[in-house]
Specification:
Length: 125
Amino acid sequence: MKPQISISKQLMAQYDLANTVQGGMAQGGAKAWQDKAGFHLELRTPGIPLEKIRIEAVNRRFVVYYMMEVLSGEVELPHYLVNLPLLPIVDVERIAAKVEEGQIHIFAPFNDWAKGSRIEIGLDG
């Protein structure tokens, strides 16, 4: 179990400065669009090993992140690449991700409610 360490905003600003001065990190990029089937997201993550990337739908949010070591590896902090609201029209169970040509491709399809579904609900009694 790693010790609980409190990290101040000032320390994180110093870490950010040191990271920039020491070469920083390659900037990735994201491209998003919507079509009639759902939402699409393409991510470029240069310098980040794909096995470190985490993609999650959590607490009505869609996040893509990786854990970055700080303080000589004593602490890991999430570095968010994408943090978006997860709309109710998305079929969370069918979100899929794949890697093609070094890019991460994520597809979040719409659920039946987004297609204008209608059901009749009968009365008991």
